[in-house]
Amino acid sequence: MRPHPQPLFLHLVQDRHYEERGEYGENMSNLLLAPRTEPTLKFGYLGVPYDASTSIANPGARFGPRALREQFQLLLAKRVVDGLVVDMDRGERVDLNAVQVADFGDVDISFYDHEKAIHQVTAAVRQVIDSGFIPLVVGGDHGVTYPSFHALHETTRGNLGLVQLDAHCDMLDFSEKQGAISGSSGMARSLELGRLKGKNMVQVGLRGYATPQQWGVGVKYGVRRILAPAFAEMGARAAAQKTLKWASAGTAKIYLTVDVDALNPGEAPGTGWPEPGGLTVQELLDFVRYLAPYVDALDIAELNPPYDNAPKQTTVMCARLLFDFITTKARAQKSPPQTTVKRRKK
What integer pLDDT is reported at residue 342 of this predicted model? Predict the structure, then answer.
């Protein structure tokens, strides 16, 4: 296993012996999207190839960061021309000339020690934040959210909001099989950090069945919930409006986590614990587009390439989700959305 690197970017290619510098001093060999002018909006892609805490679902999410990185690179190469791309959903041209997407590589992570892995991920996400980039964290199982959210928690003065798109509560306190840290406990651990209040945490898309313990933790903390049937009834935009109102009330920053199993497995089969029913891909994209201007960090969890289909349907969807997040924030920077959200000092 290669040593954990110290520079800004965690190199993916071990035998790379050169650094090509761009006009603005950026390391071009580690850019997924290079800015053509001085960058005013910077994103950092960070892979967390970890599924060692997946003890009751299908393993394989460790392959998610590499698969999504490759698909995302392909999307950018095919669609962005001279710093411009056309968003056909809106019929608008999006200017990406001042947008930079850096590749921070994959966290060099421990597979034998969950506690050590947690600290490694938190440190890596902090590196992204401290370097002035918006984290785009790609798992791995849903254990990725707690350490990533912890990094945002450490770098923020005020309270935070957390929006979780998921079929499951992920509120496990402890079990003999999974312990206190797993892909099933991230939301419970995040609530224990102190500045995430239950009223600012919103779980969206829950469905199926849960244990009374996991459901009860959310009730105890006053967590807001929009269950999958309610989401379908109110629609993506209304659900996003309500979510934003709850998550932003008195908070300085908002963290968004997207578990692939929030989606109907008929549209997104590549995940570790599929649940019948769920959001459509279009609903998910519309929801994230509405929230994106207000989100300060994003993770995508439970992309499981071994269970995806031949056309890589789920991976393609995740690449689209990442690009939607980026283009929506780029558009919002130039023309802020009409919605007024009061944010506390960060």
Answer: 64
